[in-house]
Amino acid sequence: MVLKTCINIYRKSFNDAKPDDVVFLIDPLSKVCRRGQGPYREMLLNNLNLRNEKDSADINKMISSINPVSPTQRMRIPDISAPDSVIEELTFFVREEIGFGKAVAKQMVEDVITLRNIACPRTVELKSGEMPMLVTHVSARLSLETDTRFRRLAPVIITVLSPEELKIGEYTTSTYLEILKKRIARVAFEAYRQNGLLTLSEMQWIFLLDSTSLSKIIKSFQLEHNIIIPSPGTILDAGRTMTHKDIIVGLHLKGHTVSEIVRITYHSPRAIDNYIGSFEAVLILHLYGMSPELMSRILLRSISLIREYLKLIGDFYTSTAEIKRYLIEKGVRF
Fold first, then answer.
1. Is residue 331 part of a domain?
2. Among residues 89, 105, 120, which one ends one of the domains?
């Protein structure tokens, strides 16, 4: 459905466009995989890479160069433009429903119109490859009791495809996969720098990938570069996003300080302290043979999270002696 709609729009400007021309723009991965370049999933990492100073410097340079201009900053003066009939109708509605005077009611309507125009910028304000979105705010309070549409949102503009990426001719699976990883990281950090967080479902629509493939690609990028992609799962700790905890605990166990982990992963010190503290609590209880169910009740953490921490313990330690040695270094006495 998406492909057919895009082809119809594309042909308005390019009459002879073929479906593959559009696929190249919106879903190149499916195109390169059809050429028999090999399944890309075999190229994805499942284990944490050793940290490399040169790689960290390259990634840091890439992320530091991401400085998007937010919709509000692009608007030099407040845009209160709307059809006069709409302004009059809304002003009358506010006066009748709330009882405000005409001047106050009109001011309220103009404020709402400005917000609307910030969230829905004019096409002349967008560059080729840019997409405006309304996404979860970095300070949104997420809970099962709060409907998604009532959460705090942030208007952002992301660069789905840069001019440089359009110039690339033939792709191989491996080269395109690397470009795709960096595109995903770019849009996530662009949204983050505008106080927004892209959910997995929003990224599915942006990159036309199923959630399983997208999750694996994001996880692979994080493990490869020891970095955390900002999302509601990593910043607000919403959902079951375990990879960032793996990375943080892994770097901690390799001797990195909290300040170093902050610099490497772009995560907050408070969140890092929380993950390390939870890991060490599970580690101590595991050492004394406590069941996961009881750990869950004592630590007030979900059973799934406890089991994920236990898996990390199994990955990092081969004996109780190693666990005791680590805890003694941390000041625990037996």
1. yes
2. 120
What is the model's pTM?
0.70
199 with 320, same domain: the answer is no
Give CA–CA dist 18/170, Å, rounded. 17
Domain assignment present for residue 107? The answer is yes
CA angle 159, 160, 166 (to 5 degrees): 100
Q: State how far the Cα of 183 lies from the Cα of 195, in Å rounded to an integer.
A: 19
Q: Does 232 fall in a domain?
A: no
Is the Cβ–Cβ distance between 153 and 136 less than 8 Å? yes
- Looking at the fold, whether 153 and 16 belong to one and the same domain comes out as no
Q: How many domains does the chain contain in total? A: 4
Those residues whose C-beta lies under 8 Å from the C-beta of residue 300, and which sit 6 or more positions away, are none
Instruction: Say which amino acid occupies 71.
Output: P
123 CA to centre of own chain? 25
Query: Given a cut of 50, is residue 99 above it in pLDDT?
Result: yes
Range of the domain at 174: 41-71+126-227
Q: What is the pLDDT of residues 8-24, one digit of tens each?
A: 888 888 888 887 777 77
Pairing state between β 196-197 and 153-159: unpaired
Asked whether the CA dihedral 137, 140, 143, 148 is positive or negative, the reply is negative
Residues 252 and 287 placed together within one structural domain of the fold = yes
Asked if 173 and 318 sit in the same domain, the reply is no
| pLDDT confidence band for 142 (50 / 70 / 90) | low
Q: How far apart are CA 13 and CA 6, in angstroms?
A: 12
239: nearest Cα among 310, 311, 148, 150: 148
Burial class (CB in 10 A: 0-12, 13-18, 19+), 128: exposed
139 with 241, same domain?
no
Q: Are 155 and 71 in contact (CB under 8 A)?
A: yes
